[in-house]
Specification:
Blueprint: E1 2-7, E2 14-19, E3 25-31, E4 38-46, E5 49-57
Antiparallel strand pairs: 1-2, 3-4, 4-5
Length: 60
């Protein structure tokens, strides 16, 4: 597992997520551990390294 730190798109606090490097392309929703708002995460992994990471708010 890879730990990745990034700012929450809602509260701007730094949070972290554990990412499974065995899945090359990932897209899912996870709640912020600080403010509990849903974050849409898109990740691309190549050779066990994160090459693309995007975390954005879910617009209603």
């Amino acid at each position: 597992m890879l730990e990745h730190f990034f700012p929450c798109p809602y509260c701007f606090e730094e949070i972290s997520m554990l990412i499974d490097p065995s899945v090359a392309s990932q897209k899912y929703i996870e709640d912020c551990e600080i403010c509990c708002n849903p974050i849409e995460v898109q990740i691309t992994i190549e050779e066990n390294e994160i090459v693309s990471f995007e975390a954005k708010s879910i617009e209603h």
